[in-house]
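[job 0417] fold request received: Phosphodiesterase
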Amino acid sequence: MSHERIFRCQSATFEIDGATYQIVANEQEPTNGLKILRKKNIPVDLNSDLTTLSTSAVTQRLKLILDKLESGQQEEVSREVLRKNIQYAIELLQEGESANRALEDKENESDTQVEAISEPIDENTPPVRQGAESENELSEVDEEVIPEEVRQWLAATFTRNMPSKPKTEPRPRFRSVANAIRVGLFVDRFYRQLSSNSLQIPTEVAHILKEINNWHFDIFKLHEKSNNHSLKYVAKDLFSRYGVVQKFRIDLEKLDNFLAAVEYGYTKLKNPYHNDVHAADVTQTLHFFISSSGVAVKNVFTDLEIFSLLFAALIHDFEHTGRTNNFHVNVGTDLSLIYNDRSVLENHHVSAAFRLLREEDKNILGHLKPEEHREFRNLVIEMVLSTDMSSHFTQIKNVKAYLNGERHSHIHATTMAMSLMLHSADISHPGKPWKIHKKLADLIIEEFFLQGDEESRLGLPFSPLCDRNNVLVPESQISFIEFIVEPTLSILSDLMTFMVNGDNEGSWTSSGQTKDSSNPHGLKQQSSPINSNKHLVTRRAESDNSLKSDGKTAVNSRTSFPLQSGKPPHGPIVKPWVNHLLENKSKWRMISAGKDLIEFCENDEDEEAPEHDQ
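[job 0417] inference complete; emitting structure tokens
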């Protein structure tokens, strides 16, 4: 058997579990096998130019960039250094692809077969040197026994049989191996780590965001310290915590552009209440429901559903006009004509947000598959439309019926749960500490009064709560708490308990239930109708599956999130809003009775919120 094919092959360098390996042609092995060597770490200067492109040189440079980003040394990696080294990687991949095509063209001209990866070479056997590139790569190597499982993985993953040949032994393809390893094992990890570490958040803002798991989180403090960018930093922090950027390969520049456009849409009309602060507050509250209830720990939702929940919260009042749906219908505005008087604002919020995504520089959904995009869009539309208060009682009625065992074909359990979570977050501020609730209540009342002022100028009758001269604010807030907020948060806690723990039959997804592949939500087919769209394995599942080297099953689309501050909530759902609702009603009653709350409120502001909600 000729050695000619082996001599013409380039070596391949790759990394497994933090160790760098190299496959080289083995001239002195009688089996015509391959040597597997482990390289020593050689100091790398990121600013120097590469005179010769080689796998190991480029890999070392990108690995060093990763190390610096992970260790908080981002300032040492300039934009130019990053650009230059990524360009090296691109050139190397292109070169490898060209060489691989040439090698494939010559396959049928030779009967040479290369044996599968053999045992490591003897300690006293010197490495084969093959020109300038090989000499540079192999100048300092330590030979090391390769674990059996690694050898098996290499053979199984990066070799293939040639059916047209008489022999069926797997043929190692050096260029193919190098390209597969570079792309599969390194570039994907590099992109993920770079994305995660590039969501830059100022130190002072990051310190405040450490409390984002807390029900008592002060959104006004964040808004002040972030120079009026609370929405942007809440979005970045939660996208990072849930791995949204990495799993769905969101371009960071497009994310910045999208968030900037969303902030502008919320602030351009200068609404007192329906603005970016409200959107940030609702998004953080929704995160509390997810992280404290256990729906994340118990993998109730898929990655795509988590992404759609966060996105819907961010845009649920996008481009709000500061006027109610009834105002638009009574005046006959353009929006009411476009949406035929039905959920006018809610339809506009979601429509305007998706129009933003049609702009290439703001399209953060660009890497979703078509079926993923359809499901994502359907979920967001359903959730945002559910925030229309005109559908409130129907929504609560459906959830109660579901919890009482009634099942209707038109109710999709997961969508119903996600919609209630967003709707509850949207109206939850009366359950927050008095200092936060009072400020938000004053803002929404002022927005109502501004609408009443315009209605007066137009000669229209006042809408409810909009006449600043006659509205009894304390009484209106007490009624809102007792008839809307309290029942909603109560039914939400019941639903989340059911989602996490299930009933006696385990009809919702639980860790101990086997999921039917045709019923990916984990709901019992006979009793729990689900969304007809088959839920999808996310990008994270795909990429993790392609990168697994230990023979274990890759994670599926339902992933756990270590978001809680305390112990996993295997017992009752945490409900910190209960005491605040009672306290806030009491204070409104005191205001209604004419009692002076100034001193009382000042004492409240001096109190520290508990470190964790109980």
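[job 0417] notes: The beta strands are 12-16, 19-25, 34-39, 141-142, 159-160, 171-172. DSSP finds 24 helices and six strands in the chain.
[job 0417] exit 0
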